[in-house]
UniProtKB/TrEMBL annotation:
Protein name in UniProt: histidine kinase
Keyword field contains Acyltransferase: no
Lineage start: Bacteria, Bacillati, Actinomycetota, Actinomycetes, Kitasatosporales
Protein source organism: Streptomyces viridosporus (strain ATCC 14672 / DSM 40746 / JCM 4963 / KCTC 9882 / NRRL B-12104 / FH 1290)
Keyword vocabulary terms for this entry: ATP-binding, Cell membrane, Kinase, Membrane, Nucleotide-binding, Phosphoprotein, Transferase, Transmembrane, Transmembrane helix, Two-component regulatory system
Annotated spans, Disordered: 64-87, 468-494, 536-556
Entry annotated with the keyword Lipoprotein: no
Pfam families for this protein: HATPase_c (PF02518), PAS (PF00989), sCache_3_2 (PF17203), SPOB_a (PF14689)
Catalytic activities: ATP + protein L-histidine = ADP + protein N-phospho-L-histidine
Topology class, membrane: Multi-pass membrane protein
Subcellular location(s) of the protein: Cell membrane
One GO cellular component term: plasma membrane
Length: 556
């Protein structure tokens, strides 16, 4: 006969289900506790019963020895089964239920005994300690078997020791009491075991419901898979308990939020500080795909409550996508500006062609000079006041876009900015966001105008962007710097409400500020102060500007 295949062999061991394992373990613990408690109770019980029996024997012996005539009868009468000592001892034995009451003289001769035939004979145990005046309690073997004994000296009226009294309680009666107590003890132990079994079953049922009757190995595998998944995905995951404290952060969430594992056990406000990101994680801001800014990162957050009263929030990094959206906006603006310039250039070329065909050569030369001079003046006016090439190029391009949108973009007369910027790219982002915001605000309004002022005060750069739009109401002047807040419809490729929060974050990171107020004559005036934004003058060539313009502002 072929051996049984390994897959069909009987495997002994614990069941796989958590319910069964927990129930068996609880029953084993309850049974072990019951047995241990019973053993711990029975062990001292025998000693207590023995001690009680010895003390009882000693008390009977002491009472017997205090009988006033016993010492006198012991000295005045011979040992006899009918003597007064035997009669008194038997009376006391029957009255107390003792196994025996033996009275003996100083020679160790019995004057009383349960068996009358042993009267007049020597005792079977050494009475030396009692005859020496000491009281004795012991469990020993005698002629009547094993017993609990008490021995005391017997004194006459003068206090002289004339003998001793030995009282015994059969040890079998003590053992019987112990045996009679065992069924009750086991009944209590059985009751405790039954209660423990019921509690174990209830606990197991609750564990079964909470673990969905999975095996411990399945739970362990699920936990391992969860850890690998949470730390492997490229999306931030933040779990909060019912008290609103952070209980889990995966690696991506720590990177996006800029916090470590020390944030575990703390509230979002305590770990991140007050702000929109903490409000979103805490559930104080509701909705889907909520925008928030953390540092220089644009995040999209979603929050879902869990059955235990907590919540899980997911975070996605939209920084690059938002940047690409802004670049797309700028590219579209430049395309529109180039299209307008192409149309304008075609018109000018047609005009020039007409002047040449009409042989109006002097007028043609004058017309070409005016066109070339206009564009050269625009670039020269910007570069004369702003020596940083990146910012100058940005404003020249924005001027073209503004002209296409019928907006007059002006550079204020006070504008002076040397080529000593610490972070020209960052400042270009701030200027671009504020100019785009101003162009959007004045679009479609009559006599639309945007004015830019960039000036250096020591190593501090002050940027002011004014527009002639509807302005910002006082109650909304802080809200405009909040992530996701906007009064305009978002374009299809990105969200609104990110540019101004990034401007404030950039300013605050540099130790500066960003604020909005009402511009002179109406509209909005955004002011950004950037301390330490310029290097020392010795680190770059000194700014040599041209003569100051004669007007307050110059249109570009």
């Amino acid at each position: 006969m072929s051996p049984t295949p390994p897959a069909r062999r009987l495997r002994l061991g614990l069941p796989r289900r958590v319910f069964s394992q927990v129930l068996l373990m609880q029953l084993a613990i309850a049974a072990g506790v019951a047995v241990l408690a019973t053993g711990l109770f029975l062990a001292p019980l025998g000693e207590q019963l023995d001690d009680q029996a010895m003390r009882r024997a000693l008390a009977i012996a002491q009472t017997t020895a205090q009988r006033p005539r016993l010492a006198h009868d012991l000295r005045s009468t011979p040992p006899s089964p009918d003597g007064p000592v035997q009669r008194e001892a038997e009376r006391i034995r029957k009255a107390t239920g003792a196994e025996y009451v033996v009275v003996l003289d100083r020679r160790g001769v019995r004057w009383s005994h349960t068996d009358p035939r042993r009267i007049g004979g020597p005792v079977s145990t050494d009475p030396g300690e009692a005859l020496a005046g000491r009281e004795v309690m012991e469990i020993d073997d005698g002629t009547l078997g094993r017993s609990a004994r008490g021995k005391v000296p017997l004194r006459d009226e003068a206090g002289e020791i004339v003998g001793a009294v030995s009282v015994g309680i059969a040890y079998d009666s003590v053992r019987d009491r112990l045996i009679h107590a065992v069924p009750g003890l086991f009944a209590y132990a059985g009751g405790a075991l039954a209660v423990g079994a019921l509690a174990a079953w209830l606990i197991s049922r609750r564990v079964q419901r909470q673990t969905r009757d999975l095996a411990f190995s399945d739970i362990s595998a699920l936990l391992a898979e969860r850890e690998a998944m949470l730390h492997g995905i490229r999306e931030g995951v933040v779990a909060l308990d019912r008290g609103g404290r952070i209980r889990l952060l995966n690696d991506e969430a720590q990177r996006l939020l800029g916090i470590g594992e020390q944030a575990l056990g703390r509230s979002p406000d305590g770990a991140l500080g007050a702000g929109r990101t903490a409000d979103v994680l805490a559930g104080r801001v509701t909705g889907t795909d909520l925008l928030t800014v953390r540092g220089q990162r644009v995040l999209v957050a979603n929050r879902m409550p869990t059955d235990d009263g907590g919540a899980v929030a997911t975070l996605r990094d939209r920084t690059e996508l938002d940047r690409l959206g802004r670049e797309l906006d700028s590219t579209r603006g430049l395309i529109d500006a180039l299209r307008a310039q192409d149309h304008e250039h075609a018109n000018r070329m047609h005009t020039l062609l007409g002047l040449l065909e009409l042989e109006m050569y002097d007028d043609a030369v004058e017309f070409v000079g005016e066109v070339v001079g206009e564009h050269r003046a625009t670039a020269e006016q910007v570069t004369e006041k702003i020596r940083d090439p990146l910012l100058a190029a940005l404003l020249v391009g924005k001027a073209t876009v503004a002209a296409e949108r019928s907006v007059a973009l002006r550079v204020a007369d006070r504008t002076r900015l040397p080529d000593r910027l610490v972070d020209s790219r960052g400042l270009a982002t701030v200027v671009g966001n504020l100019v785009d915001n101003a162009l959007d605000a004045v679009a479609g309004t009559p006599h639309a105008r945007v004015e830019i002022e960039l000036r250096a005060e020591g190593r501090t750069v002050v940027l002011v962007v004014r527009d002639t739009g509807p302005g910002v109401p006082p109650e909304h002047r802080e809200s405009v710097f909040t992530e996701g807040w906007s009064t305009k419809e978002p374009p299809a490729h990105r969200e609104r409400g990110i540019g101004l929060p990034l401007v404030r974050r950039f300013a605050e990171r540099q130790g500066g500020s960003a604020a909005v107020a009402e511009a002179p004559g109406g509209g909005a005036e955004f002011t950004v102060v950037l301390p330490e934004a310029l290097t020392e003058p010795a680190a770059a060539p000194a700014l040599t500007g041209g003569p100051a313009p004669r007007s307050t502002t110059e249109e570009t």
